[in-house]
């Protein structure tokens, strides 16, 4: 009888450890994106000229999926989110995503197609806009 209790306790401990270790790795689905959007009104900084250009280019190329001020939609994730902070998704990741598209890995919106209407220079200005939004909202 003691052996059954020990086995049961071991299984419970193992299940608990797996749950605890994996809880931060859950990939949210598109329906749960509202839970992961910024839980605050997005603060808009005083944008520089380059950032204002980036905002216009973001609105033309990215806003349909990533939402106004990069807060996400049912079609794409928010970029004003800790997943996209510079030390997790550096600028190179944004360039690659725009040029080649990207496989879905943090979200279940599906793969992002390349943005053929945006040049590398356009993407530079878009990144400048996104980073300004992130900084203004405590995402470094």
Description:
Residues 5-36 have low confidence and may be disordered. This protein has one domain (27-136): Cytochrome c-like domain (Cytochrome Bc1 Complex, Chain D, domain 2, Orthogonal Bundle), CATH 1.10.760.10. It has helices at 2-22, 33-36, 49-61, 63-66, 91-100, 120-136. It contains 6 helices and no strands. With 140 residues, it is mainly alpha-helical.
Topology:
Elements: H1 2-22, H2 33-36, H3 49-61, H4 63-66, H5 91-100, H6 120-136
Helix pairs in contact: 3-6, 5-6
Summarize the structure.
With 140 residues, this protein is an all-alpha fold. Helices cover 49% and strands 0% of the residues.
Mean pLDDT across the residues is 80
How many structural domains are formed by the residues? Answer: 1
Strand content: under 5%
Name the poorly predicted regions: 5-36
Q: Major sheet: size, sense and barrel closure?
A: none
CATH class group: Mainly Alpha
How many β-strands, per DSSP?
0
Query: What's the number of helices?
Result: 6
Give the overall form: globular
Pick out its properties.
single chain; 6 helices; mainly alpha; 140 residues; Cytochrome Bc1 Complex, Chain D, domain 2
């Amino acid at each position: 009888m003691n052996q059954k209790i020990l086995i049961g306790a071991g299984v419970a401990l193992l299940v608990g450890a797996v749950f605890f270790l994996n809880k931060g790795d859950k990939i949210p689905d598109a329906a749960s994106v509202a839970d992961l959007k910024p839980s605050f009104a997005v603060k808009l900084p005083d944008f520089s000229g380059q950032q204002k250009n980036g905002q216009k280019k973001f609105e033309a190329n990215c806003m349909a999926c990533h939402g106004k001020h990069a807060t996400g939609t049912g079609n794409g994730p928010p970029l004003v989110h800790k997943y996209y902070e510079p030390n997790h998704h550096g600028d190179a990741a944004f360039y690659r995503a725009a040029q080649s598209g990207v496989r879905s890995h943090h979200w279940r919106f599906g793969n992002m197609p390349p943005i053929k209407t945006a040049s590398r220079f356009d993407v530079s200005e878009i990144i400048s806009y996104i980073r300004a939004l992130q900084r203004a909202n405590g995402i470094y």
